[in-house]
Amino acid sequence: MIDKQGHAAIRSYNYVMALFCFALFWAVIIPGAKAEVRRVLPESISEIKLSYAPLVAKVTPAVVNIYTKRVVKTKSFRSPFFDDPLFRHFFGDSFGNSAPRERVQRSLGSGVIVRSNGIIVTNNHVIGEADEITVALADRREFAAEVILTDERTDIAVLKIETKGEELAALSFNDSDNVAVGDLVLAVGNPFGVGQTVTSGIVSALARTQVGVSDYQFFIQTDAAVNPGNSGGALVDMTGQLIGVNTAIFSRSGGSNGIGFAVPANMVRYIVAAALADGKLTRPWLGAAGQTVTAEIAESLGLDRPGGVLVDDLYPGGSAARAGVRNGDIILSIDDKDVLDPQGLRYRIGTRNVGVQIDVRLMRAGRVITVPIVLQEAPEDPPRNETMIEGQTPFAGVKVANLSPAYAEEIGTDPFRRGVMVVAANRNSAVIRAGLLKLGDIIQSLNGIKIKKVRDIERALRKEADSYDIVLDRKGRMINCRISSKNRYYCR
């Protein structure tokens, strides 16, 4: 039994505990709940004035506008009535003829100064085949530019302007492999020719490989507004360093839809180094080809997830074959950088130098191994032997060449293809005008002679014939044609 004094003590204890809990609720829980939605006012002038302006002031002097000029001749026109003697009698021999006309094509873009002595990078498509290139600095001074190196396959060009010893503002390269999705970036260029413009955004994605802008499809994607005229301009991080060169946009209207692509700085740096060394770009070649490991392939191989490149072709004596890579191996990474598809593999190899050693992580028969590979340049074996066919033959005016890995890489075709390819032609070539031969065709046989090298074609054409039987490989499709002496043909 509890006496009255005990009940009083219990009531006092409960009262004290209630007061304690009430005080705790107001002192801790309520302020903590309010903190989640609490709005904080700026506490200083410096916080009110937070801005990209200091970064912009550092970056923009190194971004230039590029203006190009090209003289284009239009074709002369010949009236079909010109050969009529009646019209020539009344109107003279010049009737129906118009002389070729010249017109000037102009284009504009952007560029980035990467060396203080006037070395500038831009897009190859910005300068194209320009006759004159003018670089306008941010302070409006203009200079004539000289082309040091162009690389159509990465869409990068390197220019030089004469500064007469003056050092210009220049951007340094950052390691684009350290860029992460969500990083803040600025894009600087000359959109629509309105003048230098700065836009901001974030890195939206990395390793975009299905864009189709260049042979080396590996881009940084950003939502910073990029428009026509921004091509060749700078994509910079918050340290003011160059992480990419703006190259293309995804747009249905021609304007910015928030999807822009930039060539990573590591690729640009590689091309600039080649330009400053000897002006020649010599790429390493792995000598291995393969396909993306899809979800279906991963399941069939017993892998827990898709990713990597399944090797299905090796060039004998190439870098990969010499190092012991086998068909069926899955390439997972290059120097600890993940490889997700053949385009990513091509990029990783393309940013290395000939003669360097790379560490390739492979999966072979369920085991992960690392193989060191010393990169070589693609061999030119056999020599290209570019030859223009001449003489009294339907094939006159067609240029052919022996395919080799080096030559195939140079002209942008599959380096594993073999044989003799049609690489150029005169407009007057009978077989070209008729559509029988197309650039890129590989001639398999001619009049029963198997064509392995250019000399085989020359040997086949030495024999006079009333007709020619030719077998072509056109993008993997075999075509059989017969050409008569009157240049008539049929194919099946």
Summary tags:
492 residues; alpha+beta; Thrombin, subunit H; Pdz3 Domain; 3 domains; eight-stranded antiparallel sheet; six-stranded antiparallel barrel; 12 helices; 35% strand
How would you characterize the overall build of this protein?
There is one protein chain. The protein has twelve helices and 30 strands. It is of the alpha+beta class and 492 residues long. The protein folds into three domains: 53-281, Thrombin, subunit H, CATH 2.40.10.120; 284-377, Pdz3 Domain, CATH 2.30.42; 387-491, Pdz3 Domain (Roll).
Can you tell me the CATH architecture of the largest domain?
Beta Barrel
Described by strand count, sense and barrel closure, the largest sheet is: 8 strands, antiparallel
What is the helix content? 10-25%
Give Rg in angstroms: 33 Å
Through-space gap between termini: 113 Å
Q: Which stretches are poorly predicted, pLDDT < 50 over at least 5 residues?
A: none
Oligomer: single chain
Number of strands: 30
Number of domains: 3
Please report the number of helical segments. 12
